[in-house]
Amino acid sequence: MPEQATVNPKLLVATHNQGKVREYRALLADLPLEVTWLDAEGVTFEAAETGQTFAENARMKARAYAAHTGLLTWADDSGLEVDALGGAPGVLSARYGAPAARSDGERYRLLLEQLEGVPEAERSARFRCVVAIAWPDGRVVTTDGVCEGRIAFAPRGTQGFGYDPIFLVADCDYQQTMAELAPALKNQLSHRGRAALAAREALARSV
Fold first, then answer.
1. In a domain, 72, yes or no
2. Active-site choice (76, 77, 144, 164)
3. How far apart are CA 66 and CA 120, in angstroms?
């Protein structure tokens, strides 16, 4: 009797962003998991993101999609914290300045306007990301990643998205914005890359 092929369990990445899925598939390639995503599973349900922190939002999304689909689920939430603005935009990073600010460029230009006159030494900021992995039985594991830096006086670079063009990375001695980094280096230094690597290690112990 021929052996049946082993079917890897699915890991649902709670996103509609195919680029993010490609990054996660590469990161998790050696694990016995089939990485899928919302569109591939026909999921149109939108989980609430009403938490006060990145961790709350990530856990909320992971639990909701795991319960809705019955699949092991990976969700993340991330954003920019600017010290001179009291930690804003924080969890509102993707909706900062809404409804007037509707694009990445409009959002980071608004932030630059709000920092007008703030000297270089007081423009410290960080990108923060939390990844939550939820099982259908309700178990959740979270990991986080932080990338320290400061806000530039003007945008530079074309390779990033969001606030990348105005975020000068501390690990590059403040000489490059996130949008000027090569993709491989960005993945190594970024908040999302660090959180994802820690989440991958948590998954590797459980599958």
1. yes
2. 77
3. 44
Determine the Cα–Cα distance for residues 171 and 147; give it in Å rounded to an integer. Answer: 8
Q: For residue 142, what is the domain's CATH number?
A: 3.90.950.10
User: Beta-strand (E) ranges in the chain?
Assistant: 10-13, 34-37, 72-82, 124-134, 140-151, 167-169
**Pair 47, 76: CB distance under 8 Å:** no
Is residue 1 situated within a structural domain?
no
Q: Is residue 5 part of a domain?
A: no
- Asked if 39 is an active-site residue, the reply is no
Number of domains in the chain: 1
The residue range of the domain holding 141 is 10-204
Q: Residues 27-83: pLDDT tens digits?
A: 888 899 999 999 999 999 899 889 999 999 999 999 999 999 999 999 999 999 999
Q: What is the pLDDT of residues 86-128, one digit of tens each?
A: 999 999 998 899 999 989 999 999 999 999 999 999 999 999 9
CA–CA dist 89, 139 (Å, integer): 30
Q: Is residue 4 part of a domain?
A: no
